[in-house]
From TrEMBL:
It comes from Candidatus Cardinium hertigii. This is Adhesin.
Length: 243
């Protein structure tokens, strides 16, 4: 069917015109047919599937006179019960892909994590959520990870302070451990205001197969003072072992 607008269709059926078979086909094909098209059902709502050899579900045009759509949504891989949704540009390149398992790919059709980006990232900021929270700034050690085994690597950012008292501390740390009681390492960058005792410290603690990462303020900041932290996971031991 040729792309024909309503005004052109009307001309074929004006008084005195003799519509051809093609005119009737264009008219019929331009309409929605409930049985043939099956777009809407009470159970599934709007239903879409590719037609013929095309893999497109939806196409978006700046103008219907354009030869190629600006954007397209298609199933990938085609003819698979475990297909995902692929958003492509006018050149057919994938820009946004949702895999059947929920993984998202930006610029890739093979996301290996919840979000996989094939390209550079520009962000205002980031916070780790492997573990986060607040512990008392009482000078005592507090666990900030669950019980661990095997090898782990974390990034920690932590802050504590008392407004109006001139005591503040901020710490950034990279913590690596190859099982507990190993030659583990923690690289710390620490800033503080006032005495050096205002600083924040981080350490590994525990046995070979059961250990945690701990944090503390090096002094008691007083009642109600809380040390806030965010932990980012840098190594997935279970997945790395399976590779």
């Amino acid at each position: 069917m040729a792309i024909t607008n309503r005004e052109e269709l009307k001309k074929n059926f004006e008084k005195g015109a003799i519509p051809t078979q093609n005119d009737f086909e264009d008219l019929i094909d331009s309409m929605f047919h409930k049985q043939d098209d099956g777009l809407v059902s009470p159970d599934n709502g709007l239903s879409l599937s590719p037609k013929g050899d095309s893999s497109k579900l939806i196409t978006f045009f700046n103008s219907l006179n354009d030869f190629k759509p600006t954007w397209s949504i298609e199933p990938y891989p085609k003819n698979s019960s475990a297909f995902g949704l692929n958003l492509t540009d006018k050149n057919g390149e994938s820009k946004f892909f949702i895999q059947s398992n929920g993984y998202i790919g930006l610029g890739t059709l093979n996301p290996s994590e919840r979000l996989t980006v094939q390209g550079n990232i520009n962000m205002h900021g980031r916070r780790g959520n492997y573990a986060s929270g607040k512990v008392a700034g009482d000078g005592q050690w507090h666990d900030i990870t669950p019980a661990l085994n095997a090898c782990h690597a974390f990034e920690v950012i932590a802050k504590i302070g008392k407004e109006g008292c001139g005591v503040h501390a901020l710490t950034h740390a990279i913590a690596l451990s190859t099982f507990g009681r190993s030659s583990n390492k923690i690289q710390k960058i620490r800033a503080y205001y006032g005495s050096f005792r205002n600083r924040i410290d981080v350490r590994w603690k525990g046995s070979t197969f059961n250990y945690t990462l701990q944090i503390r303020s090096m002094r008691d900041y007083g009642e109600g003072s809380m040390l806030q932290y965010y932990v980012t996971n840098l190594w997935w031991e279970e997945e790395a072992t399976e590779m």
